Structure formats: structure tokens, C-alpha cells
Amino acid sequence: MLRITDILDKTQDYLSPKELEMIEKAYIFSAAVHQGQVRLSGEPYLTHPMEVAGILADMKLDAATIISGLLHDTVEDTLTTIEQVREGFGKDVAFLVDGLTKISKITFGSQEERQAENFRKMMLAMSSDIRILLVRLADRIHNMRTLNFQPANRQQYIAKETIELYAPLANRLGINWMKVELEDLSFQYVKPDAYHELARRVVQSKEKRDQYTEEVKGIIHAEMERFELKGEVDGRAKHYYSIYKKMEEQHLNFDEVYDLMAFRVILDSDQEKTCYEALSVVHALWKPVPGRFKDYIAMPKANNYRSLHTTVIGPHGQRVEIQIRTRAMHEWAEEGIAAHWRYKEKRSSQTDDSGQIKKLRELLESQQELQNPREFMSNLKMALFPDEVYVFTPNGDVKSFPKGATPIDYAFSIHTDVGNQCIGAKVNRNIVPIKYQLQNGDMIEIITQTGHHPSKDWLKFAVTSRARSKIKNWIKTEERSKSIDLGKDLLEKEFKRHHLKFTAVARSEEIKKIYDEYGLNSLEDLMVSVGYGKISPKHVVRLFLPEEIARGEEIPAEKPKKKAPPISTPGISLTGIEDVMVHYAKCCNPIPGDEIVGYISRGRGINIHTAQCPHIQEFDSERVVDVQWSIGEKQTYPVGMRVVCKDQKGLVAELSAIISAMDINISHAEIDTRLHDMQAICDFKLDVNDLSQFNQVVSAIKKLKSVISVERIAGT
Ligand code: MN
């Protein structure tokens, strides 16, 4: 059993006496709270956190990480609280232990493989500090090493989780030794027959292989010396799981797998070009197998693995794989992110990386001015997936959403009906409002009610395009049916005024010609257009009147156009409605930035009022529509402003100077001086881009000494 002195031995050459003291304190704490707990192996529970801390110490990680290794199960499995950890060991350790407690709840278990990537991402997203993940991986290594004490069904469950979740994570962080060990340990339990067969055959040929290894190593070494390339050559059997995977993927049996052996040339030089020199030496010795050369130096793997790989026909016609790399590349290949901070001084300029490791790298690079590598490590907070959140479905699947997503987005991701009928949600079994923002690790259940419908408000909370388009679609259908009713109503009234029956006309052949002429496809479209105010009912009825009467009718100036181009009014977008005529109401002069409402007028499209406009009270709520500003190109809008000030000379000049200085046009000004109190009332009509520009000019004017008040006024 590992003792505390072993851990201190492993760390004393790079940690301070104070840190070593803290590690000892954590050991005593862990021993006390795990007192009496026993592992399935019969050993005291304490052996587990000790072994985990030992693995982390071998990786030369910082004190907080090793302490977290000693304490990683205390909050989960004992009465210890996170506050106690914070009091005893500081907020850094508490943060790590808290993170470890949270991610220990992620269990992949018997999920389908297609879910694995989501689980891995969730794990990364929840490991807001990379050290959390490193402790978790060390924890898993020790649990796998002692898996034989678990009952058979647990063995299967844990081994499968390890191979699907943890080995790929170790790989993603570039920690090869962990990946290899986790894979081979899991392989024994997941495919015991294949494992034992493979192990038997590999061992059987061991003696021959050792001989062969020495031969190849000797040849490469001699040749390197001849070309004055310094370094070492290393040969070993590939790990079982990688051989097995190759047999599976390429449908080979054991005898057909030639390159059971992998050789590594590790060069003392830190120059990339030395690797290519060594490669040409190898290729001059033996014929390369076509298509097997891979240049991971020019194009590193996503986890920043860099090396040259080639397969050659070696002595006795055997295929052997040879990897060529510098020592720095080798350290990364074996220890990945964990080694990175220790070798930052040696690191030469790096070529471009890809994907997630690039983000990590940016974080790493940005910390470079820090002197102390441990300080550097503890500053290594990572946000690998800052734009996504991962949540559980009630049956344990993981779904990913953009950050800021709400239960509405979740509901529509399940099914349109679930979304449409969503009335609320439970997160981790508690009711939450529909605007609740999903958090990593949340378990979501949607509450539905038959007959419930989406509302326009939902667009404020929904962030996924799926949910948004479903909601808009519903609103559009809804508003269309309202417009049909309204349009039909308007047409009936107008026809009645002329003693005609719209319903009868609607059934006639004539009507088709009419909507054709407007460039519409159906009677329904015609009614919608009338309802929206795009087509005047007066104009429609005129087409059915005898010519002489029609001429006498006062008609609006508009003429029916063939395939009228869509009318778009810059500055306004309507929820679920397109190409509608829009007017800005003169009574309140809305400007961008104002809260606004739309009102379907009879025959004049949609009028836009400010939400404060007193006229809104009188509106028929059926005709009120949701509108938003959508500002593309800059344009100006009229707005009224009243300035009340002490009457004095030069005042108007001063005011207009301020306004013009802000590049605002004054389209109208009126000054009225009240004799009784000698105050001047100046009403301006300004052309502004938006509310914030208006507010700027107001506050600039307010700064003048003689100004008493400035306010926005309606309808100049
Ligand atoms: Mn553990």
C-alpha cells in the first residue's frame, strides 16, 4: 500500500515545504473521514484516494490537484461538506472537489454508443478546470486496476463506461499512457475471450519478438550514428486493444496483423527537420509501405500529437511501424496536457493546431508571462465548450443546446407537439419558469397540456432555430387565419354597401380573374391581403360594379399590379408576417429603441405606435400585432422635442449648434416666449436615427444652465 511518505517523496523536489505540509494535512483529514470504510478488496477505503494522489504526484501535478486527489470522495461518500474543505484547504481545492463531486454523477453506464460523444462533451464542459478532469481520470485508472473485486455486472458497466467515455477523454487531452492503460484494462472485461486469446498469442511469440526487436533497434541505431543523429530507439508490442481494433476494422485474423511491433525514434534534437532527416535514413534502409506514411508534424492531430509515422518492410520481410519524434513531442505524446506546463520553456514556436486543443493552447499561451509553473497550472481554467450546454433527458440521454437555451428549446427538440403544448418544465424535479436557462447536467422534464398553444412571448426565450421557426410558423398560421376572418369581414361590408353579396361573388368564376390580377394564388390570399391592409376592399368591389358607377366611385389611388413586388418597410420586422405596408403613426412618432406595437388598420396596412401612445387604449385587441425594430441601413425618423428655458439672447443659436454638432437635422422649430414668467418654449422637430441618439441630444441640452426642462413631445 502506498504511504503518505511515498507521495511526499514523489513531490518534494518540485513542491514547497508549505505545500507538502498541506498534502500531509489532507491525508490526515481524508484518513479521519473515511475511517471505518472498506473497499471491496477488503482494504481500508483510504488506499483509494492515496493511490489516486500517487498517480497525480507521478504526473508532477500541483499541490491543489494532489490534495483534491486525496479528498475527491470525501464530499460524495462521507459527511464532509464543501465548506469544511474550503475552510481547511482553501477555495482552489474546494472548487476542484466540488467539480469532482458534480462530475461523479455523470454515468454513461448502459447508454447507446451514439450518445458517447455527447457524454464526453458534457464531461469536458463540466470540468471548468482541467485539473478536475485529470483527477477524475486518475480516479478511474485506480478503479480499473482494482475492478476484479467488483461483481460481474458492475465490471461490465464500469469497463464499458471507461472505454466509451474516459479513454477517449485521455486521448483528447493527449495523455497516451492513460488512454492505453484504460483501454487494455477495459478490454479484459468487455471482450474477455478476445483479450485472453490475443494475450496468449502475443506472449507465445514473445521470445521471437524480443530477438527481432533487438535486431531492428540495432540496425536503426547504427545507421543513426553514421549520420550523426543523436537519440534513442525504443521497440515494443502495440497494446492489445489497438491490435484488436485493427483486426476488427480491417477484418484480419491474428496472423495477418503484421505490425504488432511499433518502434520509436526519439531524437535529442528539438528541431523538426531532424525528424525528416531520421525518416530519410529509415526509408533508405527499408522500403516504405505505400500509403502508410503520416506526417503529424506538418499536420498535428486534434490533441496536438506530433510525430512522423511510417510503415516499412523490415528485416525478414516483416512489416514494422516506426514513429519518429523529438523529445518534446514525445513528452506531449505520453503526458499530453499534463506535461505541457512543465515544458513550456523548452517549447519552440508551434505550428497551427486545430479544434478544442487550440482553445486550450490559447489559454496556455496567454498565461506565459507567469513565472511559476504551478501558478500557471492553477490558472489554467478552461472553457472547452463555452457556447454549449449539455442536459439529461428523463431516460438519461444527453442533449446539447446553445448556451442560453430554455425549456422551450428542449421541448421543440423532442417533438413539435411537445413544444406547441408546453406549459412548463421541471429541472432536477423542481418546477421552473419557461424562460429558465438550461445548465450543464440539468435533468429536464416537459409539462404539456393538450390544446395549449405557443405565444409570441416565447420568441424572447427560444434560441434554437428549430424552436423559433416552429413558433413563428404557428403564429403565422394563427395570424393568417385571423386576417382571413378580418379580410372576409371587410369585403362583405364593402360589397353590402353596393348591394352585392360577397359570398356569392366568391363562388363565381369571376373572382379567380380578380386575385390573378393582384398576383395572388387563391381567394384566401385575397382575403388575407385585405385583412393585412395591402389591398383596399373598395378597390376589389369596384371591379364588380358597372363601369359608369365605378367611375363615380371615389377610389384610392392604388392600382392592382401584376405580381406586385414585396413591400418592405425598412426598420420594422413583423413576427411571422412578411411584406406588409407599414406606416409610422404621426400621433407618437416612434423611433428605433422605443417599445412599439403594430395595429392593423383598415385599408392602410399596419400602423406603428409607441407602446406609450395614448391611442392604444382605444385599439381593438384583435388587430394588435407584435412588431420589432430591425435596423439594417441607417435612416432617420422624425421626433418632437420641447425645450423650456429662461429666455435669453442667442439661445436658439446655442440650441441648434448643439443639435447640429450631433449631426441631427432640425426639420422644424418654433419658439414661443411667455411674457408672464419670461420662459421660452422651443419645439423642435428632429430627424434622428434612434432613441439613443435622441437621448444623447436631450442630455447635452440639459447641461445648459438656462435650460429648465427637455422632453419628448408627440405629433409636431
Ligand atoms: Mn474515487
Task: Supply database-style keywords.
about 725 residues, alpha+beta, six-stranded mixed beta sheet, four-stranded mixed beta sheet, 29 helices, 21 strands, about 45% helix, elongated, binds manganese (II) ion
How would you sum up this structure, described in words?
With 716 residues, the protein is of the alpha+beta class. 47% of the residues lie in helices and 16% in strands. It contains 29 helices and 21 strands. Strands 1, 2, 3, 4, 5 and 6 form a 6-stranded mixed beta sheet that branches. Helix 1 (4-11) runs parallel beside helix 3 (47-58), helix 2 packs parallel to helix 4 and helix 10 packs across helix 11. The longest helix has 33 residues, at 465-497. The termini are far apart. Residues 341-357, 361-383 and 556-568 have low confidence and may be disordered. It binds manganese (II) ion.
Structural class: alpha+beta
Amino-to-carboxy terminus distance: 89 Å
Strand content: 15-25%
Rg, rounded, reads 38 Å
Total beta-strand segments: 21
The distinct bound ligands, ions and cofactors come out as: manganese (II) ion
Q: Which sheet architecture does the biggest sheet show?
A: 6 strands, mixed
Overall morphology? elongated
Q: How many individual helices? A: 29
Low-confidence stretches: 341-357, 361-383, 556-568
Helicity range: 40-55%
Mean pLDDT: 82
